[in-house]
Design goal:
This protein has two domains: 222 residues, Rossmann fold; 65 residues, no CATH class. 47% of the residues lie in helices and 14% in strands. The chain contains ten helices and ten strands. The strands form three sheets. A five-stranded parallel β-sheet has the order 2-1-5-9-10, with helices on both faces. Strand 9, helix 5 and strand 10 form a beta-alpha-beta unit. Helix 4 packs across helix 5. The longest helix has 21 residues.
């Protein structure tokens, strides 16, 4: 007997190789996927503006990167003792405006250069609800706990969702014509909108993704939302807030992701990295024993073998720990 409906993402023309450079944009689920890529030492740029929830904010951020815009202090807003950018997550905020501007502009410049050489960008849509700052009529990426009466809250429709996303994709491909785009809808539920509005919002995002795949080249879709909703479908796969998928769910989604997009070489690469991770997690108690010296030598040989094969890999921190050279 079957007790659950398992979803098997279709095999895709999109194939991810160990040496690929990958960018993620979008909701906190984009962070989750990026962290998995980073864990396996893919060259990864994670959410260069911080977490972004809606397609308009993603499109605005891409436009800023395309233009290589340089922010100035007068574009920041001061609230609760810190300076903020409406286009960035609060992780960029600080009581020092010069520090905020320096990190923002450095991030824009490095993101532009990274995207020029990237192979894949993952765009994760979280919600179709947006907040417009009334003073400027601009959609903001983060409200930074500024009072709600300063914003107009509205839900964008399918037309506006698809148009904003199409603008983002067009600009990304103007930066890098060879770039492949993978769309996904975050399984994180925006519960403050209520059950009905959350589902309508997600439906809008899913339909917009379908439209983009039909109209754009090298655009693909991964069903992360559907896997959590219709495959896992159990609160044991959520964190204690009952909104965000937990580590078990993220691992499961990553396995489905790997099945859909990873080449056989990439799967072999992951297995090699996993073996090294196990070695790095080994607690060294006495470095003077023959067994420990043999273990260290064997692990270094494995590191040298995989870095010869994939020169982009960097195990500097792991080597220091292995050799007992940590500060």
């Amino acid at each position: 007997m079957k007790f659950r409906t398992e979803i098997f993402p279709e095999k895709s023309e999109l194939k991810i190789k160990p040496e690929d450079k990958i960018v993620t944009f979008g909701s906190c689920f984009a962070d989750n996927i990026a962290e998995k890529f980073i864990e396996y030492k893919f060259r990864t740029l994670k959410n260069p503006f911080g977490v972004l929830y809606n397609p308009v904010s993603i499109a605005n951020s891409v436009k800023i990167i395309y233009d290589k815009k340089s922010f100035s202090e007068d574009e920041l807003i001061f609230h609760q003792g810190e300076y903020h950018s409406f286009f960035h997550h609060s992780s960029f905020s600080s009581d020092n405006p010069e520090d905020v501007i320096e990190r923002i502009n450095a991030g824009i410049s490095s993101a532009h250069e990274f995207i020029k050489e990237a192979d894949l960008i993952v765009l994760t849509f979280g919600t179709a609800w947006v907040y417009e700052y009334i003073e400027t009529n601009e959609v903001v990426s983060n409200c930074h706990k500024i009072p709600a009466n300063k914003f107009n809250r509205r839900k964008i429709d399918l037309r506006e969702t698809a148009a904003a996303s199409a603008r983002a994709i067009k600009l990304l491909k103007m930066i890098n014509p060879e770039l492949k785009v993978l769309l996904t809808v975050s399984p994180v539920r925006h519960w403050k909108e209520g059950a009905v509005e959350n589902q309508r919002s997600k439906a809008t995002l899913i339909l917009a993704a379908e439209k983009l795949i039909e109209e754009c080249d090298n655009v693909f879709y991964f069903p992360s939302y559907e896997i959590v909703m219709d495959d896992l479908r159990d609160y044991r796969y959520y964190s204690t807030d009952l909104v965000h998928p937990n580590n078990l769910a993220i691992e499961y989604i990553w396995e489905k992701f790997a099945e859909a997009y990873f080449t056989s070489e990439t799967i072999s690469y992951l297995n090699e990295i996993n073996k090294l991770k196990s070695a790095f997690n080994h607690k060294i108690r006495n470095r003077n024993t023959r067994e420990t010296q043999s273990f260290i030598e064997s692990t270094i040989n494995k590191i040298n073998a995989i870095t010869n094969k994939y020169p982009h890999l960097n195990f500097a921190d792991e080597m220091k720990k292995l050799l007992g050279e940590e500060n």
